[in-house]
Amino acid sequence: MSRQLVPRRIVFPVLFCALVLSAAMSQEVPVVKPESVGLSSERLERISTAVQRSIDDKRIAGGVTLVARRGHVAWLKAQGMSDREAGKAMRPDTMFRICSMSKPITSVAVMMLYEEGHFLLEDPVSKFLPEFKNPKVLVKPASGEPYTIPATHEITIRDLLRHTSGLTYQWNTDLGAIYRDANVASGLLPYDGTIADSTRRIAGLPLLFNPGEKYEYSLGLDVLGRLVEVVSGKPLDEFFRTRIFEPLGMKDSYFYPPDNKLDRLATAYTYYDGKGLNPFPDTPITEGAFTYSADYPTRGPKKLFSGGAGLVSTAADYARFCQMMLDAGKVGNTRLLSRKSVELMTQDQLGKLNPEWGFGLGFGIEGVKAPLSEIGSAGQYGWGGFFYTLFSIDPKEQMIVIFMGQLHPDGDLTLNRQVHELAYQAIID
User: Fold this and answer.
1) Does the first or last residue of the chain, that is N or C, have fewer Cβ atoms within 10 Å of its Cβ?
2) pLDDT digit string (tens) for 270-287?
3) pLDDT tens-digit profile of 332-364?
4) Per-domain residue ranges for the chain?
């Protein structure tokens, strides 16, 4: 029987009927005794110790950690400050820029439309976005000017899901400056345009390689966000809200949080050797051709729905999404995906294209091509975000681990990964 992480049909009616709890309390996530799900309370406290050490060392302002097992949250803790300079404490419902943790949600949206029969994964994306017809590939000779040649294949929907499309990001040394000059949106800056505008611009630019030939982390999920809009006839934010967030009870997940929730958005920080931990500057940071900011969820036209980077969420909200995946696509009595689609999304799709590690359709997959480098389970899957967020889902152990911080650059801090290992060492059954 499928279990919800936070069963709304049970928890929220009880809270409302009690008539003794405040509205704020009704947002709290019930946390069970860790031993009831095979975890050690004493050992889970090691997570708190590690996070506090990084706070005390002024490597991070604060964070929220969550561990769930067998459909129940066993650990949810906020530590440090969401805004150190303002003296604002971190809360369990603090909101974070989750950046590339938006990608798995967009991937689920694509697979929902796939299940409705709108397309096959091997269909060219140009079938729905004709601007991607007849792509060209960049050639950089040893001498002379770069030029382009026709691609041997068109970009498929599957290529976009597994990052084998030939697209890239602005930080790429070969195409980054071209993307910047063409005003392609990265999702990490206020942008005067829509995802349709940015998608049309990227479609007119050369690819790094022929689609299907290599893996290159890319803006492909932004293109898929536009695909969702075209196929569904809804803006991406509306599709997410009505088809994913509301069924899952994700009440604090947005591209642009409403004004009455902005005070819950954590401040983003930078860490540089010699300068230490500081709030993100008011002006964007530029690294080569790549420029990014922290104010994109709160400033600007707010028209860009970046499927690859744009979402803001909480640890509890994202845990609901993870539990849906862990429960084979089902939440309560509502099914978002079939079990078979979840199986497809969480098995390696790269094969020989990347012999070192696995990637499915929206998720990185551990232990499928090489032994695990740290404790965990072969087949666990997850991903992270630009501003120091990370999650993992483990079907074998029925376990979810989430770390939420707001830090970039991170100065090689390994806390986000340590939280994962400290959650696993707490397993006692």
Assistant:
1) N
2) 999 999 999 999 999 999
3) 888 999 999 999 999 999 999 999 899 999 999
4) 8-97+266-284+311-424
- What pLDDT is stored for residue 29 in this prediction? 82
Q: In b/e form, how buried is each residue of 25-48, taking b as 16+ CB within 10 angstroms? A: eebbbebbebeebbbbeebbebbe
Beta-strand relationship, 381-385 and 136-139: unpaired
Residue 24 pLDDT exceeds 70:
no
How far apart CA 89 and CA 81 sit, in angstroms, is 4
Tell me how far apart the 2 most distant CA atoms of the chain are, in Å. 75
What is the overall mean pLDDT for the chain? 93
Q: Which has the closest alpha carbon to 392: 368, 417, 415?
A: 417
Burial of 303 (0-12, 13-18, 19+ CB in 10 A): middle
Instruction: Give ∠ CA 222-212-111 in degrees, rounded to 5.
Output: 45
Domain spanning 8-97+266-284+311-424: which CATH class is it, in words? alpha beta
Q: How far apart are CA 76 and CA 316, in angstroms?
A: 8
Residue partners of 244: CB distance under 8 A and separation at least 6 = 105, 108, 109, 112, 250, 321, 336
Condensed to tens digits (0 to 9), the pLDDT of residues 164-182 reads: 999 999 999 999 999 999 9
The angle, 0 to 180 degrees and rounded to 10, between the axes of the packed helices 102-115 and 315-326 is 40
The pTM of the full predicted model, rounded to 2 decimals, is 0.93
The residue behind tokens 């480098």 is 373
Cβ neighbours for 192, distance < 8 A, ≥ 6 positions apart? 300, 301, 303
